[in-house]
C-alpha cells in the first residue's frame, strides 16, 4: 500500500467517524475476484493486484482497467501468489511469493527486470543487524515499500526479516549476491524487534519503517537502519494487515500543522495512529466496517478490508472484492 495523502481535519479526542454528508452511498470504482494490494502514483495512476487471477491491473481515476499484466506461471511476466506492490512513481515493484522473487515493471506495465535471488549482504560495521545468511537461501517476499530516500524495503516471510536494497541496481549479479550497502533486520536476533508473523511493511517520510505482525497483534516500528523503536497498536489490533501513510493538516491551538498518520488495516476496521516518534505514535481512532457500510454500497460482511492507499484528499480503500474512493470530507474526527 503505498502513497501519500493530505487531509484537513480538526484534532480533538481519539475517535474517528464518517460524516453523513450525503444520502447517496459510495459505489466501488472497480471490482476484483481476490484483491491483495493497491498502490497509487503521484499522478493518480492506480495499481491493484488480484491474487485470484495472479494479475496486476492499472486503472484510471474512474476505475477503468486500462492495462494489465500477469497470469499464473513462472515466466518473467507471470505470478504465483503475488501479495503486495509499491511504486516510486516511475516503476512498480511486485512481491511474488510463490515464484520467490520481486518483479519490476514500468508505470505502463512493461517488464523491466526481476530480483530472483535473496540478497545476501556482506557484514557492514555500524548497521543495526549483521547478516546471517548464505547465497541461495530460501526466501518468500510478501511485502515491500520504497522509502523517501529511494531504498526498497522487502519483507521476507521465510526468514521473518526486512531486507533493504537499492532498487536501481538490484538486478545486477553482485547486488543479488553480495551488496555491502544493504542490510536486514527483524529476525530472531533482533531482540524486542523480533518479528513473529509479519504481514506488511510500510516506510514513512519521517524516517520510520512499520511492519504489521498478525501474531503479535501489533505494528513494529524501526528506524531506516533497522534499529527497533517500539510496538504500537497492542491491545487495539486483532489481525493487522495492510498499512498506509498519509500527511494530514491538523488545526491545533497554535495553528495549522502538517502531521503524518499511519493507517492500519485490521480484520474489520481501519485504525489511525500518528506516524511520528515525537508524537508518541498516538492512537487517533478507528473506523469499523459497520460504520463504513453506512457510506459505502456494501454490507459489513462484504467489506473484508485488505489495503489502503492515500493521495491528496482521497482515501483509496481496497476490500477483497472492490476498490472504493472516499473523499477526505467523509473522514472526520469526532469531538
UniProtKB/TrEMBL annotation:
It comes from Candidatus Thermochlorobacter aerophilus. GO terms for molecular function: zinc ion binding. Keywords: Repeat. The keyword Cell inner membrane does not apply. PROSITE patterns: NHL (PS51125). This is 6-bladed beta-propeller. NHL repeats lie at residues 69-108. Coiled coil: none annotated. InterPro entries: 6-blade_b-propeller_TolB-like, NHL_repeat, TRIM-NHL_E3_ligases.
Amino acid at each position: 500500500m503505498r502513497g501519500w495523502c493530505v487531509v484537513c481535519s480538526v484534532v480533538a479526542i481519539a475517535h474517528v467517524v464518517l460524516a453523513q454528508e450525503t444520502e447517496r452511498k459510495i459505489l466501488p470504482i472497480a471490482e476484483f475476484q481476490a484483491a491483495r494490494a493497491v498502490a497509487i502514483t503521484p499522478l493518480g495512476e492506480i495499481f491493484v493486484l488480484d491474487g485470484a487471477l495472479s494479475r496486476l491491473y492499472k486503472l484510471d481515476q474512474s476505475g477503468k482497467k486500462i492495462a494489465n499484466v500477469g497470469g499464473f506461471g513462472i515466466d518473467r511476466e507471470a505470478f504465483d501468489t503475488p501479495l503486495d506492490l509499491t511504486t516510486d512513481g516511475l516503476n512498480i515493484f511486485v512481491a511474488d511469493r510463490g515464484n520467490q522473487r520481486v518483479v519490476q515493471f514500468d508505470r505502463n506495465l512493461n517488464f523491466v527486470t526481476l530480483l530472483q535471488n535473496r540478497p545476501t549482504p556482506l557484514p557492514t560495521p555500524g548497521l543495526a543487524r549483521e547478516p546471517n545468511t548464505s547465497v541461495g537461501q530460501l526466501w518468500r517476499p510478501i511485502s515491500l515499500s520504497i522509502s523517501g530516500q529511494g531504498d526498497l524495503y522487502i519483507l521476507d516471510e521465510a526468514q521473518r526479516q526486512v531486507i533493504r536494497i537499492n532498487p536501481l541496481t538490484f538486478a545486477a549479479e553482485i547486488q543479488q549476491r553480495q551488496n555491502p550497502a544493504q542490510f536486514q533486520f527483524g529476525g530472531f536476533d533482533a531482540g524486542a524487534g523480533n518479528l513473529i508473523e509479519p504481514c506488511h511493511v510500510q516506510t514513512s517520510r519521517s524516517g520510520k519503517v512499520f511492519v504489521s505482525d498478525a501474531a503479535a497483534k501489533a505494528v513494529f516500528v524501526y528506524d531506516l537502519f533497522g534499529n527497533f523503536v517500539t510496538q504500537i497498536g497492542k491491545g487495539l489490533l486483532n489481525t493487522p494487515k495492510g498499512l498506509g501513510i498519509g500527511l494530514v493538516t491538523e488545526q491545533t491551538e497554535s495553528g495549522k500543522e502538517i502531521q503524518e498518520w499511519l493507517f492500519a488495516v485490521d480484520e474489520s476496521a481501519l485504525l489511525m495512529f500518528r506516524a511520528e516518534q515525537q508524537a508518541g505514535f498516538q492512537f487517533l481512532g478507528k473506523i469499523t466496517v459497520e460504520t463504513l457500510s453506512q457510506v459505502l454500497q456494501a454490507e459489513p460482511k462484504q467489506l473484508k478490508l485488505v489495503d489502503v492507499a492515500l493521495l491528496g484528499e482521497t482515501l483509496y480503500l481496497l476490500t477483497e472484492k472492490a476498490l472504493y474512493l472516499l473523499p477526505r470530507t467523509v473522514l472526520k474526527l469526532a469531538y
